[in-house]
Sequence to fold (299 residues):
Amino acid sequence: MYDVIIIGGGPAGLASALTLGRALKTTLVIDNDNPRNKVTEHSHAFLTQDGVTPSTLRQNAQHDVDKYADVERLNDTVIDIKKIEQYFEVQTLNSTFKARKIMICTGLKQQLPHIDGIEACYGKSVFYCPWCDGYELKDQSLIVSVPSEHITFMAKLVSNWVSDIIMNPSDDNHLTQEDIKYLQNKNIQLINGKIKRFEHDNGQLSRVIFEDGKTITRSAGLVGIELDSHFEFLTSLNLKRADDDSIDIDEFGETSVKGVFVAGESSTIRPSQLIDAASSGNNIAKFVAMQIIDEDDIE
Fold:
């Protein structure tokens, strides 16, 4: 039986494993090598790793983790987790494992907008996170397509990097007068209507085609994406959800099921940067290790 099984081998999971390995806790990291940022060409704002590819960052992290004898890594897919008395049983496609504690570090599932051409462009010239890619977009002509409620916020944020911006509400909701006035005062163009297609050259955006036939020239884009943490393997645990549909956790990252912790993006329904996920994993892993230490001290 392991002290801890970590589901997910991204920055949150590997940072957790590093901390637990250094705390002498037997740890198994299970990951199926399908990260959400797999299409991203470069990672940014991670100290000592700025500009490297996500795969390189992951390999570097794996190298750090593999130095610790108490940590193992497994390439597999978790399909179920059950609590059995004082331990957990984790079932994968190929085997079954037991652990005293569980850490969910799987990040979030995402759904891109239904726009022709977006999959080819996403991660190359179309992105979702200004903090992640805004610096690289600073000289581009930008289309920003997000839900109406985020129009003013995104216009304000993106204007920090880009002056040539066209805003597009991605839903059917009407903008408020305050939204419209803000865009007018900032001389930011607004185009309503659904986007039909991103025309591109090997992923490099060139034109945006709307359903009504309108066509504009743009060299890059930011889009809103749908995110959730409803993974099928969590069903048996029946974890309590917060009002915003994120997994409900306390200040230590522990869920409504004692012994199950969540770190990284899995603890929210908001995307974050890699360094944020790694920091979360490091912090929550300390609480996990301390819970084990407390239990062993009582025994």
In short: DSSP finds seven helices and 17 strands in the chain. The longest helix spans residues 274-298. The chain has a mean pLDDT of 93. The chain has two domains: 2-110+226-297, 113-223.
